[in-house]
Amino acid sequence: MADGTVPAAAGDMHVAIIMDGNGRWAQRRGRPRLFGHQAGARRVRDIVEACPDLGVRYLTIFAFSTENWKRTQTEVSGLMSLFRRYIRNEAARLLRKGVRVRFIGDRVRLDPKLVEMMDELEAMTSGNDTVHLTIALNYGGRDEVARATQRLAREVAAGRLAPDAVDAETLAGFLDTHVLPDPDLVIRTSGEARISNFLLWQSAYAEYDFVDTLWPDFTPEDFARCLSRFSKRDRRFGAVAG
Ligand code: IPE
Ligand code: IPE
Ligand code: MG
Predict the structure, then answer these.
(1) What is the residue with the minimal CA distance to atom 8 of ligand 2?
(2) Structural domain contains residue 31
């Protein structure tokens, strides 16, 4: 639900993952950072395909943040070509596995060729319903809220929306994630315990799990352990424990 007050039905969980630690994984092997990103991209397939058995219907993964442009040009362009390669190599398999792919984030700064491939993958998989995979690319939570506010303000300026009618649900309807339920669980790999501008609004009542494993080493078994820990948490949503 847009206001995050209703827990997900069993089997309909939304898990969001901050896939962190590719650079350190490569560094430990004396290899360039891009080598770690390539290994990280290969991990995505197993995690996506583990979702149905684990009761995860929605999976949202953080691939590139609005702050990641601060990295060297070599790393940024390497990542951008990796995204193109991922789409090219995985499209047929995602379609076959029943995965519906969506992208969130600001597309304006992305290469038009990449945006075209993203649009195509979204359209091509739009009939799928087994797993809803959302890829956050040039995504930042604050940027998303700012862009949503711009769209909302335009509606107000055009006289189609009354200022007094604006509530949390109205704003949620303008976010990139408007068609998705709020995440139940946010996992971050690599030992960092911060959210780095990921799904700020949507995670109001998410549970967090920070694991030490670096993303290229994160297996479906690690994923299953996160879900098992999650199942033991007592989610209260502001009420008294039941
Ligand atoms: C996460 O891995 C992937 C992206 C941010 C694109 P990092 O590249 O942040 O890896 P570390 O944190 O430097 O190890
Ligand atoms: C967050 O990781 C972004 C992605 C995983 C895509 P970062 O590595 O960019 O975050 P910080 O800089 O450590 O906070
Ligand atoms: Mg990092």
Answers:
(1) 20
(2) yes
> What is the residue range of 185's domain?
13-141+180-231
Catalytic residue positions, numbered: 20, 68
Of 228, 207, 234, nearest in space to 54 by CA: 228
Tell me if 219 is assigned to some domain: yes
Could you report the per-residue pLDDT of 134-182, keeping only the tens digit for each? 999 999 999 999 999 999 999 999 999 999 999 999 999 999 999 999 9
Strand duo 99-104 + 207-210: pairing: unpaired
Which residues have CB under 8 Å from 176's CB, separation 6+? 104, 105, 139, 144, 147, 148
CB of 79 sitting under 6 A from ligand 1: yes
Q: Is the CB of 216 under 6 A from ligand 1?
A: no
Residue 103: CATH number of its domain? 3.40.1180.10
Is the entire prediction scored with pTM above 0.90?
yes
Q: What is the distance in A from the centroid of ligand 1 to the CA of 59?
A: 19
196 C-alpha to ligand 2 centroid (Å): 6
DSSP string for 75-134 = HHHHHHHHHHHHHHHHHHHHHHTTEEEEEES--TTS-HHHHHHHHHHHHHTTT--SEEEE
64 close to ligand 2 (CB < 6 Angstrom): yes
How far is it, in rounded angstroms, from Cα 238 to Cα 187?
22
Instruction: Name the residues around ion ligand 3, CB cutoff 5 A.
Output: 20
Ligand 2 and 194: CB distance under 6 A: yes
